Amino acid sequence: MRRIKLEPIDHLFDWHKSSLRKAIWVSRVKLLRKELVPTFGLQAFPNLYFVNHVYVYKKPSYFTSLPTEIYGSHYSSLVIRAKVDKDYLVCG
Asked: What is the tens place of the pLDDT at every residue in 14-68?
């Protein structure tokens, strides 16, 4: 079993153009399942991911929990390479 080395990501929030800095929440998630959602017309987010939040790096105090169902677009790099039972850094 491969061990994951946890490193602080505070330096990513310092960069003024970082999407992580602008995000409301940032979390390392384990992808449990992914599904293609039936779409009608030009729906932008046809991919549904079921995730488990392994570690939350950033979350507003008014959130009691983070979403366990996340939608992804066709053009996202996560859609192309996402594999079940792997960890990913996601934000929303």
From this structure: 544 566 777 888 888 999 998 877 766 655 667 788 999 999 988 999 999 998 9
Q: pTM score, two decimals?
A: 0.67
* Residue 88, beta-bridge partner list: 29
Q: Are 28 and 54 in contact (CB under 8 A)?
A: yes
Radius of gyration of the chain (CA): 14
Q: What is the largest CA-CA distance in the chain?
A: 43
C-alpha dihedral sign at 51, 89, 44, 80? negative
Instruction: Determine whether 45 is exposed, middle or buried from the number of CB atoms within 10 Å of its CB (0-12, 13-18, 19+).
Output: middle
